[in-house]
Amino acid sequence: MKTIRSYVGGAWVEAAGKAQTLVNPATEEPVAEVAAGPNDWARAVAHARTRGGEALRALTFAERGQLVKALSKVVHAHRDELIALAIANGGNTRGDAKFDIDGAAGTLAAYGETGIALGKVKFLVDGDATQLTRSVRFVGQHIALPRHGVAVHINAFNFPAWGMMEKAAVALLAGMPVITKPATSTALVAHRMMELVVESKILPDGALSFIAGGVGDLLAHLEGQDVLAFTGSSDTGRMLRSQQNVVGSSVRVNIEADSLNAAVLGRDLARDSEGYSLFVADVLRDMTQKTGQKCTAIRRVLVPQSMLDGVREDLAERLGAIKVGDPSREDVGMGPVATRKQLDDVRAGLARLREEADSIFGGDGSVEAVGVPKGKGFFLSPVLLQVRDGKTARHVHEHEVFGPVSSIIPYSGDAADAVAIVARGGGGLVSSIYSDDRAFLGEMAFGLAPYHGRLFLGSSKLAGHAVGPGTVLPQLVHGGPGRAGGGEELGSLRGLAFYLQRTAIAGDKPIIEALFRPHTSDDDAG
Ligand code: NAP
Predict the structure, then answer these.
(1) 10 Å Cβ neighbour count for 446?
(2) Domain ranges, ordered by start, for the chain
């Protein structure tokens, strides 16, 4: 059986003992063992910080972009192998696995191109030089350079490929070395990707390190030039963010956490309109893709009172056509959740939601899974609920059930009412509004924007031209305020800011202009 080890200090290492046995969540058969992580964390950090950091900073943005682009090709070239591992260790259907792995390759490719477009420069110029006093000589210019530390990335279990590579793409392009840690339960895909990166010899020594199992006292070694980017539950995020040395040394922290994303149906959309079909398709996809284990999945479905019967009927009918079972079978539309703990958490969360809601589809989640030994696997039916009283229900706005579960919340059809209900989620990654009424879309967008990192406006003419709200794109910001962690990743160049130090330089205009003039991609300066 495969042993998942750490890659630190330029070598594969393992300490005595094993951390965990990974299983196939459909059959519960073991698929890999996870070795205990490295013994010497200080050395692992120092190697990345010095060897990796110096090597990356010696390169221009364009050169680093080439490296990142080359990594994308490596992932893509091994797509089928990685898909098979995601099916075996993540409970992914083939479609789920493609979503993760193609997302990883696509984000690497996009950031590769972003770097290449920045050209032969080693720092970025932020805005124009500004005259600071009455004297024309005294000007200020902001510039941004890579921090001289290490970027520690801790990822969630649901996107082992994309989670690892979307963060690595941005940090490496910015010029910071990375120590990446996948969630242990689904680490097989991330580990294979790390093996491929090492075999490819694309990256300089120390640029990317990989941690299997726990992080030991890794975080205790972080200092003021380092950054920590975390994706996972709010509880873990809060604990990491408040570590003594993280607070004491002002280690920069980015948290991507829970989110109770909403989809709001406008009352103008007739049942036979394209916009309505888009709404139904997006809710269904988000409930079942990755078995609902998507941070961007629609958890709250706001439906005008007058449209409740039709929506319930349409969603229940479509959910009934989805087969749950062995995700390697082509006829199966939804696999298991990733772990037994995840299954227990979803069941407990569902019970909590049902205190204030009734099941429209899926009952308590019990299901007879197809193609697997009876009683085996971490399976659940998709469950669609409807809250009894949208005004008083609490759990639906406070508790993220990380599985194939969504709740309909009736509302009046007025934008102000919908905004007030969605805002009760306390800040989210993404919400979507489905309508062809521009006034409604505008009122919703301006009302919801302060509570979200991203909004999706699903109008009829967009049908067939867009990916749904659940897809995170490298061009757009990913993250959200409040409950969602307060973080911000991706968004093209915006994502680089986390890894760069912005510095204001004030001085004599000719000197400032000579040293820090904006570069064109053909410049050699930097
Ligand atoms: P989790 O239990 O918080 O774990 C996340 C990561 O933190 C894992 O790598 C885990 O490692 C690590 N971790 C746990 N305890 C730690 C500690 N004491 N020190 C250092 N690292 C520690 O979350 P999860 O169950 O994997 O993910 C599900 C959650 O992630 C959901 O709430 C979901 O909403 C959220 N999520 C958010 C986004 C987003 O972009 N906003 C994306 C995906 C998921 P081990 O696996 O080794 O324990």
Answers:
(1) 12
(2) 40-257+488-516, 262-480
